[in-house]
Amino acid sequence: MFLVYFMLTWKDHAHSSTVQLFPKEHRLKAHRTVGRISSMIRSFIAGNAFVGLIGAVVSTVVFWRLGIPYFYFLGAISGFVSLIPYLGVFLALLPPLAAGIGLVDKTGLAIILVTVVGLHLLSMNVLYPKIVGKRLRLNPLAVTLALLFWAWIWGGMGLILAVSLVGATKIVCDYVDPLRGFGAWLGD
User: In 3D, which of 142, 147, 135, 143 has the Cα closest to residue 182?
Assistant: First the structure.
């Protein structure tokens, strides 16, 4: 919580100080690059929030109809946790299945399973590339390779940060002349 507070209150200082690290002839490019990275991160967060909200609303309605207690809380958790690549579907299934034990029958459990897995597949394969990928202008191969690489390096945290890291890398490559080919390869 403190980190978020300081990041928000000191963002202008951090932006201008970062630009000052570069020689005078490169400061305009550095200013544009840092600005585009900041814009990309805002788009990434907004896109994730929108896709997560869609999953949360649908999950909440289904859990409510099944009579699961705390459906509003479980729907929000399930919808947003589902955004974690690869592991999200398993993490999204745990809370509603645990809350439904003894309350829902086999049909209800199947509905929970189909809803959560279906929402995960829809959000990660259709909504996520259309909404988040379009905003970041990254190709699917670059995103998949980034997910594999950063998961190998940092585990679960790497999965969460991989897309924003490859997006920032693409922006830097777009502004550095010798790396423009790599930036074009990362792009869509």
Answer: 142
Query: For residue 37, which of 174, 171, 160 has the smallest C-alpha distance?
Result: 171
Helix axes 11-20 and 2-9, enclosed angle (nearest 10): 60
Reported as a single tens digit per residue, the pLDDT across 90-131 is 999 999 999 988 888 899 999 999 999 999 888 887 887 778
* pLDDT, tens digit, 9 for 90 and up, residues 151-168: 899 887 888 888 889 999
pTM of the model: 0.77
Secondary structure (DSSP) of the chain: -HHHHHHHHTHHHHHHHHHHTS-GGGHHHHHHHHHHHHHHHHHHHHHHHHHHHHHHHHHHHHHHHHT-TTHHHHHHHHHHHTTSTTTHHHHHHHHHHHHHTTTS-HHHHHHHHHHHHHHHHHIIIIIHIIIIIHHHTB-HHHHHHHHHHHHHHHTHHHHHHHHHHHHHHHHHHHHSGGGHHHHHHHB-
Question: Residue 36 above 70 pLDDT?
Answer: yes
**CA-derived radius of gyration, the chain:** 20
